Amino acid sequence: MSQVTRRIVRELHDEPHLEGRRITVQFIKEQVEERGLDPRTVADRHDLDVADVYRALTYYHDHPEEMRTIERQQQSAIEKHDHLTTDPDDVRD
C-alpha cells in the first residue's frame, strides 16, 4: 500500500483527482457510496492510503456545486456520443 499522501488536484481533464494518479474524486465516491465498497478495500485495490480515499470523499462533499457540474458535463458527453455506440443486440453475425 502506498504511503504517499496525495493532494486533490485538477490537472486531468479539469476534473479533481488524486495528485500523481488518474483516480478521480468522482470514481472514489462511486466506489464507496454507490457500490458500497469499504474505503480500505478501495485503497487496497488502487494502492492508496485509506486517508486518500477519505480525502477524496471529503473533497466531493465539500464542493457539491463543482461536483454536480462535473456530473452534468459527464452526462452531457454520454448523451452527445450515445449515437456512436452499438447495442450488442443490434450486431448481426
TrEMBL record:
Recorded superkingdom: Archaea
UniProt cross-references to SUPFAM superfamilies, sorted A to Z: Homeodomain-like (SSF46689)
Annotated region described as Disordered, given as residue ranges: 71-93
Basic and acidic residues bias: start-end ranges: 78-93
UniProt-listed InterPro entries: DUF433, Homeodomain-like_sf, WH-like_DNA-bd_sf
Pfam annotation, one family: DUF433
Protein name from the UniProt record: DUF433 domain-containing protein
